[in-house]
Amino acid sequence: MPDYRSRRKVRKKIVSWIVFFTVLLVTTVWLTPILVALFTSVRDYDDIILRGFFALPEEVSFDSYFAAWRQGRMRQYLPNSFLITLPALGATLLLSSLSAYAISRFRFPGRRPIYYMFIFGMMLPLQILMIPVFGLSNAMGLYDTYIGLIAIHTAFFLGFNTFVLKNYMSTVPPQIFDSAHIDGCSELRIWWQIMLPLTLPAFAALATLLFTWIFNDYLWALILVRTGDKMPVTTGLASLQGEFVTDWTVIMAGSLVGTIPTLMVFVFLQRYFIEGLTLGANK
Amino acid sequence: MKRNRKLVMAALTLLLLPAAPFLFAGGQQEVEDEKNVIVYNSFLSDPDARVVDEALVEMYQDRNPHVTVVHSIVAHETYKDALPAYLRAENPPDVLTWMAGETMRFYAERDLLLDLTDLWADESWDEDYTEGFRELSSYEGVPYFVPTNYYWWAVYYQKSVFEEHGLEPPETWDEFLEVCETLKANGVTPFTIGTRGRWTAGGWFDILNMRVNGPEFHMSLMDGNESYNDPRVLDVFENYWRPLIDNGYFIDDAAAYSWSEAIPFMTSGEAAMFLMGDFIRDAYPAEYEDDLGFFQFPIIDPNIPVGIDAPTDGFMIPANTRNPELAKDFVAFMGSLEAQEYMAQELGRLGTHSKIDRSILTESQIQGIELVESADVVAQFYGRDTHDEMQDRGYDAFVEFWENTGDAQRILDRLEEDRVRIFQ
After folding, report:
1. B296 and B162 share a domain?
2. ipTM above 0.85, yes or no
């Protein structure tokens, strides 16, 4: 009997070691590009020319971070990214919470078609919308403005947000609203003072996801913004690619600085972020 | 019922709130644009060029504090793709960088560029720029472009390696082959090259074709007026280019490297020479730069005029700019002696202004000027001199030939089919 038990212990230990090494391996594979970026950012251009990308830095220098900030215009691109992300985030959450509230709470003719429309909108791939959206924003005079970019982000995520929030709101027992209603509370106040506080976890999770998506967007910014002083980090960094010479140390330094905001959001709101991954998966 | 109406009103207001800025923003911006703003888009996206470009804009701003220059630097390749859209837009950028010669004429021919005749006259550029530069900037005799800087193509070499083997820069084809042979015998590959970006092979075609058949034939081929399977072109491939590759005068697996990845072969001493534009200095490691020299590609037939690739960049203004006067003022500054001297000093390219004080230039810049001045014909480069689509087919063909040197006839026959289709 004791013999049997110890053998089980050994087996358990082996299994845990195998798990450990597998996790280690996968983590290494995932972290390699980030490490290469980190090493590249502290090397200098001549070193890369002479010894290629995959080499350890001979001398560590943070010059490329200063270069990214000044010549690379990160000091301009980074605030731009926030100027686009935050309003878009606020607007899309506000609008979709209203639409989700209406769909989840009221029974009115056309409720289901409207709901399905949001879901279908969510399934449209971005690439299909590129040319129509460009044409529309050009015709409306929104081409090359922040507002044009904010508007498309707001509209683009409405479908997904409404879908997620509607499902979450449906789980709130309707009796709460009925009693509020009987007490004379208006619908808007119910939405603002009862529904929103109750669905706050879903909001937080959704907001973290949306922040990373909008902040990291490249394609819309590429299509809708032309002038350099309006570009967000993503397209701004891409413009550092030269005709003959591209200083990868600066681009890598800029990219790493550009990931800090999303990293912060992730670190502080990690709990919601993980919830967000399964958000809307179950009704 | 009443409450419902209130609700609807409230919902509508909320919906309209985010839309409110849309309604006002458009109008305001237009007023601002009309006045003292010029939008300047530039393709000077290389690290060194970018710094100079921004400094020049700053110099202009200091002098014209009432003007706002909205300056964007766009990645070079992206810029090339975006240019037609810039030029055709309702509200185009006011000033654009571009390349002189055929690539510019393509747009001038389509009435997309502003006529700069008065600017050339007012700035006395008609005298200050050589006839050659004026020609490069004009379409049917009318200037649409202001050239501001150029660089030369030459054979760059590691001086110490040449010294070690007792070699001198060759001037004739025989001397050139001898240098290659000596280097090879001593275990040094004569040439490094990286053809992953394809255009590097175009440099070889340009110079060999100009040396063997003359610049006149070369330019005519670029214009689509000669055929690619002409025996003269085949002669270049079979009797000049092919032996160089077959004899192992180039590093192995050239297609695996970008042009800058081919540099370490030179710094390590494995290879000795590199046919390249002067921008090689921007990428060349600083500690080896003193050892880097260059010489004119050797003369093959002394009886034909000497041609050289010296690509020229500069500025143009879209025909439907909203602010032609201010745009011209800005371009006038960029083309001025002062701006050009600054650029020549900081970037190491050559200015196009003929009054540039040579005492501020480096030794290699002076040697470069002499190189260009000694040439009878200045070409731009394969990709700049010929049609855009032809360039793509041509580069493909050169790289294919590199790997299959026995197939010159077949490759040229195919290029000829492309030429007929593209230039019909």
Report:
1. yes
2. no
For residues B214 and B181, state if they share a domain. Answer: yes
CB–CB of B139/B342 below 8 Å? no
Asked whether the beta carbons of residue A239 and residue B73 sit closer than 8 angstroms, the reply is yes
Spell out which residues of chain B touch residue A149, defining contact as CB-CB under 8 Å. none
**Chain A residues inside the 8 Å CB shell of B263:** 49-50
Query: CA-CA distance, A230 to A233, in Å (whole number)?
Result: 10
Q: How far is CA A164 from CA A101, A157, A191, A209, B59, in A?
A: 11, 11, 16, 12, 53
Assigned domain for B107 exists: yes
How many independent structural domains does chain B possess?
A: 2
**Does any domain span residue B10?**
no
Q: Are residues B304 and B318 in the same domain?
A: no
Q: For residue B41, which residues of chain A lie inside 8 Å, CB to CB?
A: 226-227
CB contact under 8 A, B18 and A226: no
Instruction: Report H helices in B110-148.
Output: 117-122, 125-128, 131-136
Domain co-membership, B247 together with B110: no
Which residue among B14, B22, B47 places its CB closest to the CB of A245?
B47
pLDDT digits (tens, 9 = 90+) for B76-96: 988 988 898 889 877 889 999
CA distance A34 to chain B (A): 22
Q: What is the domain-level CATH number for residue B288?
A: 3.40.190.10
* Residue A245 near chain B (CB below 8 Å): yes
How many angstroms separate the first and last alpha carbons of chain A?
48
B47/A242 CB distance under 8 A = yes
Note whether residue B30 is domain-resident.
no
Contact A94 B18 (CB under 8 A): yes
Where chain B has pLDDT below 50, the residues are: 1-2, 8-9, 11-12, 14-31, 33
- Record: contact B47-A250, CB cut-off 8 A: yes
Are B297 and B395 contained in the same domain?
yes
**A31 to chain B, closest Cα gap in Å:** 25
Q: B290 and B208 share a domain? A: yes
- A141/B43 Cβ within 8 A: no
Q: Could you give phi then psi for residue A4, rounded to 5 degrees? A: -60, -40
Task: Specify whether B48 is located in the same domain as B169.
Answer: no
A window 149-188, beta carbon within 8 A of B: 151, 154, 186-188
Whether residue A245 and residue B279 make contact (CB cut-off 8 A), yes or no, is: yes
* Residue B416 domain boundaries: 153-309+387-423
pLDDT digits 0-9 by tens, A71-110: 888 999 999 999 999 999 999 999 999 999 999 988 889 8
B59 occurs within a structural domain: yes
Unique residue bearing structure tokens 């973290």: A208
Domain A71-277 in this protein, CATH class = mainly alpha
Closest Cβ opposite residue B51 in set A71, A91, A151: A71
One domain for residues B200 and B257: yes
